[in-house]
Amino acid sequence: MMLVIDVTKGMQTQSAECLVIGQIACQKLVVVLNKIDLLAEGKRQAAIDKMTKKMQKTLENTKFRGAPIIPVAAKPGGPEAPETEAPQGISELIEGQGTVMTGTILSGTISLGDSVEIPAL
User: Fold this and answer.
1) pLDDT tens, residue by residue, 28-65
2) Is 108 within a domain?
3) Residue span of the structural domain in which 63 resides
4) 51 inside domain
5) Domain holding 18: CATH number?
6) In this structure, which of 19, 53, 60, 113 has its CB flanked by the most CB atoms within 10 Å?
7) What is the dihedral of CA 12, 32, 38, 55, to 10 degrees?
8) Is residue 118 part of a domain?
9) Which GO terms describe its biological process (predicted)?
């Protein structure tokens, strides 16, 4: 089981409930400290260490004592990371046709007649 904890909030009621269910239904646990990219860079490691100790104490009296605790950022990069790619145009105006969307499919397939949803950019 992966127990994902927001490092800026710590253990919440729902997290504790998941831990109780996990003790019944799961054999192994990995604690994921998420959102470390939201921590100030100068205080990041201290905050991670503090939350790691809190989680170790929480797990101390469970069957998950000693479970790995891994800090992560689900968002690629961090607030200090520059954008790695420049935005690319994905539409052009073709006379008589209107706006035509273009792009590259990175995974999966699309066929003529398929509906495509374009999320806000």
Assistant:
1) 999 999 999 999 989 999 999 999 999 999 999 999 99
2) no
3) 2-71
4) yes
5) 3.40.50.300
6) 19
7) 50
8) no
9) selenocysteine incorporation
Distances (CA, A) of 59 to 5, 8, 20, 21, 50: 13, 19, 11, 14, 14
Cβ atoms 51, 7 nearer than 8 A: yes
Residue 31 and residue 69 in contact, taking contact as beta carbons nearer than 8 Å:
yes
* Total of domains in the chain: 1
Q: Is residue 95 part of a domain?
A: no
Higher pLDDT: 109 or 1? It is: 1
pLDDT beyond 60 at 19: yes
SS (H, E, C) the chain: CEEEEECCCCCCHHHHHHHHHHHHHCCCCEEEEECHHHCCHHHHHHHHHHHHHHHHHHHCCCCCCCCCEEECCCCCCCCCCCCCCCCCCCEEEECCCEEEECCCCCCCCCCCCCCCCCCCC
The one-letter amino acid code at 114 reads: D
